[in-house]
């Protein structure tokens, strides 16, 4: 257990004060990050918190101070303002003096050291659960008696030391900083997408709750997070959080900076400082496993691109790649970040695909009321953003409209399929009539020919529950095997012609949804007859008014995994939509929910070996007479 030197900054670093430019703050961070020793979290949190709180104070606008305002587009329906204080000769930071920062730093160390007697917990090199709980109690008991869930600028130690207020992330950061003050360098942050806890002990194998979430579950502090992981809650990302080093913790406190002055106005200086610091951390390799920080940097780059840096679109893609490679696709926000970017830039097809990918990530979880933030995210996408896209695309008659693109329809169905599977096995329902109406309205925008162009298959469990779809799927698989066996020795182009052009032409001509290739080609079709068969096919009559060859279009394939969407398969592909039936099916109680929590993975295997239904978490109780 090493002791830290009270001189948190070198003399050279102290000469950078007073901090009054973004450049001076960046220089300070660069100097600290180049050290061989670990950075001091308390000191850095105080510095950035002081700057953030000073520049985002509402008094600056309310007092009528002269300022320039830049309007930037947030989405298609609203705008956000960037407030620029009067430009001075030097720069526009209020001067941040070292004596003020030092006084707050000394105060934090005094609070921790005077409240925690390390000798009571032995002289181990590693922290114990009791010590972590004690540091958490110290922070907790010095806060005001209120929970600040949606208040801005409460995530830094500056807020704690000047107002005794912290949000959820701020409490966790303060506990880690407190343990660092005591010399326990094995205590680190573990970050999900909406929660934070700590890891400690040898190899970081121990976990402990140290903060609150939602309405303040203080009774969880000190407990391991195993229960949340086993419940498959998104809040605990299936046990795949961002495990922080000390440098990643610096990245987290920078990423948590909030430039907002009001709901519609941002401080340009704070945003510029955050952007510059994130690039410093990016260049030093401390964002390589941090998808949320990469997404925040991409958002900042979209508003104000940095010359010579990669495009924000690349950063969004990089965040997704990290989430898939490092965290088993357990993180949802990288996809919603990217979807928001595509939406703001009118790339609506790409946005639908990103939102569908987000739903694919959420489908592996069970919904609980602690997942409120991601629920609101999906609700906004389903009930506001997608309907707006449909309104924009439906207002014209462009041949390139996404309403004429069957892939977009497939993305839409995959989005709702993920939401429905998220609901399955959950104690709390997700979908209600507020979800159903926008879905029905959106689906009705797509023509029946576009909808029927999507090849839909369902999971085995879903097919068992919807027997009407099972024979069709079997027949479809049989036909696909026949096509593969007949054209096995052909080139990819010939297969495309045979598998799509001929069938599509025959479907249009005969008015049938499915026609067996064996019926048309015959079992003894020879190699030289493919071209002859294709060229001998002529489209004529009222159904085809042109003699041009049929356009090759690959039918998008969609695999539905949720019970609800599998049950909607026939309704979605029918020529005339039964909107009432779709609404009823979508808002019906989840089929697996009736029997309790759905079992997955090893639990399902054990249940199968014991002869129990894998969809039931426990056998039904015998009714007492």
UniProtKB/TrEMBL annotation:
Entry GO MF terms: chromatin binding; transcription cis-regulatory region binding; Y-form DNA binding
Residue numbers spanned by region Disordered: 597-625
Recorded coiled-coil stretches: none
Recorded name of the encoding gene: EOG090X0424
Composition bias type Basic and acidic residues, residue spans: 599-615
InterPro entries attached to this UniProt entry: Menin
One Pfam family this sequence matches: Menin
Gene Ontology annotations for the cellular component aspect, listed alphabetically: chromatin; histone methyltransferase complex
Stated name of the protein: Menin
Compartment(s) where it occurs, according to its Swiss-Prot or TrEMBL record: Nucleus
Keyword DNA-binding: yes
One GO term of the biological process aspect: negative regulation of cell cycle
Keywords, in A-Z order: Chromatin regulator, DNA-binding, Nucleus, Phosphoprotein, Repressor, Transcription, Transcription regulation
Principal cellular location given in the protein's record: nucleus
Lineage: Eukaryota, Metazoa, Ecdysozoa, Arthropoda, Crustacea
